[in-house]
Each structure stands twice: as structure tokens, then as C-alpha cells.
């Protein structure tokens, strides 16, 4: 806690210091973003956002969404068993495979609702924009918590040839990464760019049962982008991207509660586990022969733009598909309790057409229509071993099969009235309609250890074995499964006012309504009454100040917000007696009400030609405003299975989080530069699962990343040493209750890398 207060004071000091110093010679670079579907300065738009350049991603070797959480305040990510959990201001979608992300992801304008669609490493990225708070009009596809927009690099017609080649080696655990970005004009009307990224990383988890290191990974990402000038006023951009990712080993580790009884020499979070690598699978139904995952994805995108009469017509057509195979020792200990597997297949076709004015008129506008059609298939075999059944020499295979068809269409529009030189007003709205149809069937079979299907007549079973049929029918599904359908219609308005105090300072205020469609839970043994969940909605009020001063060398942004959620979609896991067998049961439902409110500050200061200092800090108060029928954890269960979490904090909602950083670039003679930087991220404590299990609370943490190296004066080469999580902090990104113990998913330990980069071209 002392670290938290110390770094908070430092962050505030850095944010406020520029107003007290003399102007320097070096002005800050202007950050241009496309959050409003137009290219604008980040200082000119009424949104609380963080923009991270591709250069900064490269400098700190930030290669995926999980790493991004360490440099963006009020934003957290974490890989879990079935999804990537992304939260902004304490709100996200949780660990339920059917949820669309409440933090919406766009890649080059293509909507990506499934977390596996962006499992690939960051490759040749121009910038990432993190939009905090509910989005409605322009990014408002299920974006009740916020949005992330990733923009990749491309070469336009007329660009000169350029190439970037980078290689890195991680020294603590072993592993290499290779990146290539090459592009330029092949004719007066065509620009091409090819990007490749290959990684081969050794594992940083020690399996004390097998004696092997786990979570070694291999990935290959390739992307080809063509920009074609079809006329003087129009262009067509075509992009194809493929990624192939493999991770070997289990996920997470056992800790908390009575984990030490199962792992006498461990039972705590320390990048060690004792999971059995031999899966329970006499039926050969798992999709892998050993724990791990394989994800293969393909994305196709075509963007057409035509300028005429002061307006731009844009059409974005996309097709996205992926397939994931996963298997794991779910209990994470060296006992035959529960193994699981998952196959997910997803196909999505989308089209957006919009018309926008240039943004420099008295009356500006943007309006459009969006449509997508998607199919999501998931099959989840699970195997209960003899240790789950009191030593009974019986195995149980329980599988769930889900196929969800989704059709979504949406219309949106926004009108801006630039009343004068200093004042503008905007109003807008989006209407969305989505139909979802589910086909679900559950399968179950009991097998003796000699692989005999079924049980012979007269077999004597103990009570645990007799309860197998209850486990098999735990969802209460009728014979033949279920085929429910549902429709969602949501109207999401937004209105705002913007006042320019000067050319470099402005105030804004806005009111936003947003919503996220309901759906059907995919969890294997979810109860029938919990399968369907409703839409969630939010109304948010935000006010802010954005400014640049001291001759352009200093920048300070402040946002104050309050968001009120109704029917918040939540999921959690509880440990219940099902027919005499203690088992983990997923609970998916809508919380009655939740509130997220707080203050965000961020600033930068070019302290000298060779030094830039920055900081960001977020103060957050996020809690359940009304949740009287919440699931219980192991400490607060009154015996009814229902608990009141009203007034309790939301998961992943740290009271305070932020980062402080400094970047230096010092010339040494006429040919060399010393380059480096340090980034200190910090967070207060937060819970990591839905029932607020006390042992699942992540304590406050401070993580330090740094880089130091040399580069050519012409920036054509560099050699860098990069350290991440130098404080070796253990940070939970999610928790899965497993009865008498917890399964925890944690960020990587300290890593040290050597990186070399070569650049060619003009």
C-alpha cells in the first residue's frame, strides 16, 4: 500500500509539473487517432483514451493484449481457460465462452467479438487506441465497457521502399522472436506491405510432477496488405492475415484454501504446478493428446473509400474465421479428478457502409449501417476420473455441444453543430437488432476402467458412483437437447458539448447510453435455468479537460465519469453438492445493478530534447449497486446458496491504478545515440473472480519494466536490453474455484531480452 501511495503522488506530480516549468525546445509529437472514424488529434475528441504507438510496443517488446494492461490505466487483461478477459473501469465480460466482449475489439475497422480472434501476437502495428467508457454511436457494438482499436501499418501508393527487421532473444527462460515488415510502391497506383512475426518461447511454468517446463509456445503470423488507388478520388485496401498459435502444457496452478494438502510442497502462486500431463481419455475424445491449445485464424478485409463533394463514402467488408483445439488437466493437481477439452469453430461475415463529411463544416455528419452473420460451434468433452468419485474405479465422459447462429444489423448516425469558433454540440444514436438461435445437446457415458461402455447388470456401486447419472444430467436438459432462440433490440443515444478554451485546450461533457446483447451460456454443466441471460445496458455521464501548453512541450488530460449498469452480465463458479458429489457448477446471470465512477488523469512532458516524462493514474469506485441473489463463495454461504453482494466491489476493479514512465534519447557524437526508458506500473488490490472469494483477491502490486541500448544517429539500427516485470511480481489475471482449492492464472515472471533492429529505405 505504501508503494501505491508513493507512485500515485509521483504520477500526480508529473501530471501537474509542466505548468510550473519553463518551455523547452522539443515539442511533444501530436497523437493522431481514428476513434471518431476520421483522422483527428487525440486532444480534439471528447473521449477518454490512451493511444500507444507501434514504436512504443516495439521498444518494450509488448507483443500481445495481455502485455498492454501494464501500460494502460483502468485497463486489465488476462488469458484464462476459455477466453481472454478484458476489463475497462472494472467492467468486462468474465470467463464465459458465450459472452461477446464488453470491451469491443476492432482490427483495422473490422469488429472482432470473440477473444480468440485476436489471440495472435501484435505484428507490424501502427498504434492501438483504448477508448474508456461505454461506446454507442461509432464504436457501439456491444461496447458497454469500452473499445480497443488496433491499426496495422500499411504502405500507400507513392511510398518509398522500406523494411524493418527485428530479432529478440529472451535470456531467463529461453525463446526467440523474429519480425519483418517490408513495403513500398510497386507502381504509381499500388502500395504493398508484407508483415511476418515468428515466436518460439520456452515455458516459464515448472511442473513438479512431470519434471518438465510448461507453457512453451510457438506462433507464426503473416499479413499482406495492398492499397490500390482506383482513381484520383477513391482507393481500395485489401488485407489478408493468418495466424497459427500453439501452446503446450496446462493453464494456471492450484492455490488457496486447501491446495497445500494436495500439493504439500507448494499450494501457492509461484509459477509451479503438479498437473498430470497424461489426460483421462480412454475414449479418444480429446482434441489434443496432451494439455495445451492450438489456434488457427484467417482474416480477410476489403475497405473501399471514395471522396466526393466534401464527403467520404466508406465500405468495410470482412470475413473472419478461426478454429481452436484445447485440452487440459482442469484440476491442476496430480490426481485423476477432472480433465477437459474444447473445440471452438467460428465464422463471421460482416459489412459496414458509412458516409461522413470532412469534419470542417458548420454542420458535420456521419451515418451508416452495419451487418454481420456469425456461427459459433463449441464442443466440450469433460472426463471425471476415479479420484473425483471417492476412489470408485469408474470414469465419466460428459460432453456439451453448442451451435449458435447470430445475425446482427445496426444503423447509426451522428450530427455535429459547430456553433462558433469555440463551441460545438453533437447528438447521435445507434439502433441494433440481433437474433440468436442455439442448438445444444449434452452427451454422457459411464465407462469402467477396462473401457467397457455402460455398467453390467448387478454391478454394486457406492453412492458416489450412483450419482454419476445426476452429474450427467446436471443441466436438466430434455432428451434431444434444446433449441432456444432470442432477439435483442437496443436504442443507444449519445449527446455531448465541446468548448475550446484556446487552440490547445478544450472542455467536454457527454451522456452516453449503450447496451450488450444477451445470449445463451455454453458452460458444460450449466443448469437449464441459467442457460439464457438478458441484455445488459448502461447510462454514462463523462466530463473532461484536454490541454497542451508550455509551447507544446506539456500535455494534461482529465476525465470524470459515472456509469450506471442495469442487468450486468456476470458469471462465476460455485462448488455444490450434486447428487452426493461435490462439483464445480457455473452460474451465469444478470446482476441487478452496478455503478462504476471515478477520475482519470494522464500527462506528458518533453522535459528536454533527450527526455520525455509521462504518467497516468485512475481512481475508481466500482461496485454492485444491487445484487441480492448473487452466488456465494466458500466463506459467505448461508446454506441457501444465495448471497447478497450489494455494495461489494466489482471483480478486477482496483481503487487506483496507473503508470509512470520516462523515455530518453541522448546523442553521443555524430553517429550514436543512447536510448532507454523505464515504465513503472502499479495497482491497488482487486478480486479476480465473480463470487469475491477472499483467497482470490490480488494484492496491490508494482511492476517495473525498463530498456537500455544504443542506436544509430540515423535510426537505421539499434541494440536493446529489455526487462519486463523486473520486480518479479506475481499478478493474478483470473481465478477458477475448484472446490477445496482455486485455480489461478498469473502473468509471466521477470523476463530479460536482447533485441536487435535493422531498418532500410528512406
- Number of separate domains: 1
> Considering DSSP H and I runs of 4 or more, what fraction of the residues is helical?
under 10%
Strand residues, percent? over 45%
CATH superfamily label: TonB-dependent receptor, beta-barrel domain
Distance between the termini: 49 Å
The CATH topology annotation reads as: Maltoporin, Chain A
**Based on helices, strands and strand pairing, what is the structural class?**
mainly beta
| Alpha plus pi helix count | 6
Total strands = 42
Tell me the overall shape.
globular
Look at the structure and give the mean pLDDT. 86
- Main sheet, how many strands, which sense, barrel? 22 strands, antiparallel, barrel
Radius of gyration from the alpha-carbon trace, in angstroms: 26 Å
Class, according to the CATH hierarchy? Mainly Beta
What is the CATH architecture annotation? Beta Barrel
Low-confidence stretches: 1-24, 450-471
Amino acid at each position: 500500500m505504501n508503494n501505491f501511495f508513493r507512485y500515485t503522488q509521483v504520477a500526480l506530480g508529473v501530471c501537474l509539473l509542466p505548468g510550473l516549468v519553463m518551455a523547452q525546445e522539443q515539442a511533444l509529437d501530436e497523437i493522431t487517432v481514428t476513434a471518431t472514424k476520421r483522422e483527428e488529434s487525440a486532444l480534439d475528441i471528447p473521449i477518454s483514451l490512451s493511444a500507444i504507438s507501434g514504436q512504443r510496443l516495439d521498444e518494450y517488446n509488448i507483443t500481445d493484449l495481455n502485455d498492454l494492461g501494464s501500460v494502460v490505466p483502468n485497463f486489465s487483461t488476462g488469458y484464462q481457460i476459455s477466453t481472454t478477459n478484458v476489463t475497462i473501469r472494472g467492467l468486462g465480460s468474465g470467463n464465459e465462452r458465450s459472452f461477446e466482449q464488453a470491451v469491443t475489439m476492432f482490427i483495422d475497422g473490422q469488429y472482432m467479438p470473440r477473444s480468440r480472434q485476436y489471440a495472435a501476437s501484435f505484428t507490424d502495428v501502427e498504434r492501438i487506441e483504448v477508448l474508456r467508457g461505454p461506446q454507442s454511436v461509432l464504436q457501439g457494438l456491444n461496447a458497454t465497457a469500452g473499445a480497443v482499436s488496433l491499426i496495422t501499418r500499411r504502405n500507400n501508393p507513392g511510398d518509398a521502399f522500406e523494411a524493418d527487421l527485428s530479432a529478440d532473444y529472451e535470456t531467463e527462460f529461453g525463446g526467440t522472436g523474429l519480425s519483418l515488415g517490408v513495403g513500398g510502391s510497386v507502381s504509381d497506383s499500388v502500395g504493398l506491405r508484407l508483415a511476418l512475426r515468428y515466436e518460439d518461447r520456452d515455458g516459464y511454468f515448472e511442473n513438479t510432477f512431470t519434471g518438465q517446463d510448461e507453457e512453451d509456445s510457438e506462433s507464426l503470423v503473416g499479413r499482406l496488405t495492398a492499397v490500390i488507388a482506383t482513381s484520383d478520388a477513391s482507393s481500395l485496401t485489401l488485407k489478408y492475415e493468418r495466424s497459427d498459435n500453439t501452446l503446450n502444457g496446462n493453464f494456471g496452478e492450484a492455490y488457496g484454501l486447501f491446495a497445500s494438502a494436495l500439493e504439500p510442497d507448494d499450494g501457492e502462486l509461484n509459477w509451479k504446478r503438479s498437473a498430470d500431463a497424461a489426460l483421462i481419455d480412454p475414449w479418444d475424445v480429446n482434441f489434443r493428446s496432451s494439455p495445451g491449445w492450438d489456434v488457427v485464424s484467417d482474416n480477410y478485409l476489403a475497405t473501399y473509400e471514395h471522396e466526393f463533394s466534401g464527403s467520404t463514402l466508406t465500405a468495410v467488408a470482412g470475413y473472419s474465421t478461426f478454429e481452436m483445439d484445447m485440452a487440459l488437466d482442469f484440476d491442476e493437481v496430480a490426481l485423476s479428478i477432472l480433465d477437459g477439452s474444447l473445440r471452438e469453430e467460428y465464422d463471421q461475415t460482416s459489412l459496414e457502409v458509412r458516409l461522413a463529411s470532412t469534419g470542417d463544416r458548420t454542420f458535420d455528419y456521419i451515418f451508416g449501417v452495419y451487418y454481420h452473420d456469425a456461427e459459433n460451434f463449441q464442443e466440450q468433452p469433460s472426463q471425471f476420473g476415479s479420484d473425483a468419485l471417492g476412489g470408485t474405479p469408474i470414469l465419466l465422459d460428459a460432453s456439451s455441444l453448442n451451435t449458435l447462429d447470430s445475425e446482427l444489423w445496426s444503423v447509426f448516425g451522428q450530427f455535429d453543430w459547430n456553433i462558433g469558433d469555440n463551441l460545438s454540440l453533437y447528438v447521435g444514436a445507434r439502433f441494433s437488432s440481433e437474433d440468436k438461435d442455439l442448438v445444444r445437446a449434452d452427451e454422457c457415458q459411464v465407462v469402467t476402467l477396462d473401457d467397457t461402455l455402460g455398467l453390467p447388470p448387478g454391478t454394486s456401486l457406492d453412492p458416489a458412483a450412483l450419482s454419476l447419472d445426476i452429474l450427467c444430467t446436471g443441466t436438466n436438459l430434455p432428451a434431444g437437447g434444446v433449441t432456444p432462440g432470442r432477439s435483442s433490440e437496443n436504442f443507444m443515444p449519445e449527446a455531448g458539448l465541446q468548448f475550446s478554451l484556446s487552440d490547445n485546450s478544450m472542455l467536454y461533457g457527454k451522456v452516453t447510453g449503450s447496451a450488450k446483447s444477451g445470449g445463451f451460456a455454453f458452460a458444460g454443466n450449466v443448469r437449464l435455468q441459467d442457460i439464457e441471460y438478458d441484455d445488459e445496458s448502461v447510462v454514462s455521464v463523462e466530463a473532461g479537460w484536454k490541454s497542451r501548453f508550455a509551447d507544446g512541450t506539456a500535455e494534461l488530460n482529465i476525465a470524470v465519469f459515472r456509469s450506471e449498469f442495469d442487468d450486468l452480465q456476470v458469471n462465476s463458479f460455485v462448488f455444490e453438492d450434486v447428487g452426493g458429489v461435490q462439483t464445480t457448477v457455473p452460474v451465469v446471470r444478470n446482476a441487478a445493478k452496478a455503478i462504476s465512477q471515478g477520475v482519470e488523469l494522464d500527462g506528458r512532458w518533453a522535459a528536454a530534447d533527450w527526455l520525455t516524462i509521462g504518467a497516468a493514474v485512475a481512481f475508481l469506485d466500482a461496485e454492485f449497486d444491487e445484487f441480492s441473489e448473487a452466488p456465494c463463495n466458500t466463506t459467505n454461504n448461508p446454506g441457501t446458496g444465495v448471497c447478497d453482494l450489494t455494495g461489494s466491489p466489482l471483480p478486477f476493479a482496483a481503487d487506483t491504478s496507473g503508470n509512470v514512465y520516462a523515455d530518453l534519447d541522448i546523442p553521443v557524437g555524430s553517429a550514436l545515440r543512447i536510448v532507454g526508458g523505464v515504465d513503472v506500473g502499479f495497482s491497488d488490490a482487486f478480486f479476480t473472480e465473480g463470487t469475491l472469494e477472499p483467497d482470490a483477491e490480488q494484492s496491490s502490486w508494482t511492476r517495473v519494466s525498463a530498456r537500455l541500448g544504443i542506436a544509430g544517429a540515423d535510426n537505421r539500427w539499434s541494440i536493446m536490453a529489455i526487462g519486463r516485470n523486473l520486480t518479479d511480481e506475481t499478478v493474478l489475471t483470473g481465478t477458477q474455484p475448484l472446490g477445496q482449492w482455486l485455480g489461478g492464472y498469473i502473468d509471466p515472471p521477470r523476463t530479460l531480452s536482447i533485441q536487435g533492429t535493422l531498418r532500410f529505405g528512406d
